[in-house]
Amino acid sequence: MILKRGLKRLLPFLRIGLSLFLIIFLLNRFDFTVIYQNIKKTRGEFLIFALGLNLIGDFLSSLQWKFVLSIHRIRMSIKKLFSLYLIGAFFSNFLPTSVGGDVYKIHRLTREIKFNHAATSVLMTRVMGLCSLLFIATITSFSPLNRAITGADIRLILAVLWVIIPVTFFLPKFFARFKFFSQLRDIFARYRHGKKRIFRAIITSIISQILGIFFCWAVAGALSLKLTFTQIAYFSSLTIIISALPLAINGLGIREGVYVWLFNKVGLEGEIALSFSFLLLLLLSFRSIIGGILYAVGKNRA
């Protein structure tokens, strides 16, 4: 028990350590001056457009969350859920070692609904988002340009993801022996009886993720990158899924490394990939500041 608690306390520091190691490794390998100059020359109109797309995508994700909660006959205003969603983004980006965004959203919802309902609603929206991205990555992998660079490494990653995500979502019988997972399986079973709402949530999730791809496309436009929309969709969807693994702080370091790896496949330098990734991070951090303001002045404080 003591060892388990020790590992639990040590885990955030290990994640911080991995993020720092990867960022330092990448910055030592590539020219930071070039990265800075690339970011400095970005086109402002594209950045404003990107921020707008990102906020619209967040709103749709909140609407998806509302559809999922309605399956439990739980009604919440889209205004409240949108506020909680932005606050969750703030927690994920700025307080990663204490309370993650999903944990905050669950904690906040349990003031009004049961914990299991809150947890499964957040988990369901997360899984839907990952499945939507996996669908986008798979579809765009068949475009001519992407098919030319899709080697055995990417095919293996896609195959593994198609196995892992559905298995995690349906929670196989093995987990039923544990009380908590057994309760989750019972709650997930209810989603089968809300097919219309689930369908709405899935469609909303896909549209939200497509807007997220357009967000990345706008950032690529700000840097004047010569990449097609399908290439951006392919690279970004894969990167978001891989960086969602709970190995580093908010995917920091892993995201940058994956972009370097993928951009290299189309002949783009590491400096370009890091400029793109850092600019994404800056915009996402700026957006999440809105959530911090809402948390500071609103009624959603814990």
What does this 3D model show about the protein?
- By secondary structure, this protein is mainly alpha-helical.
- The protein has one domain (about 40-295).
- The protein contains 13 helices and no strands.
- It has helices at about 1-30, 30-40, 45-70, 80-95, 100-110, 115-140, 145-150, 150-170, 180-190, 195-220, 230-245, 255-265, 270-295.
- α3 packs across α6, α6 packs across α10 (about 195-220) and α10 (about 195-220) crosses α11 (about 230-245).
- The two termini are about 30 Å apart.
Taken in chain order, the helices and strands follow as HHHHHHHHHHHHH
Largest sheet: none
Euclidean distance between termini CA atoms:
29 Å
- Please tally the helical runs, counting DSSP H or I stretches of 4 or more residues: 13
Number of strands: 0
Report the oligomer: single chain
| Mean pLDDT level | 83
Q: Into which percent range does the helicity of residues fall? A: over 70%
Secondary-structure-based class equals mainly alpha
Rg: 20 Å
Count of the domains: 1
The general outline is globular
Q: DSSP strand (E) fraction?
A: under 5%
In the predicted model, the low-confidence regions spanning at least 5 consecutive residues are none
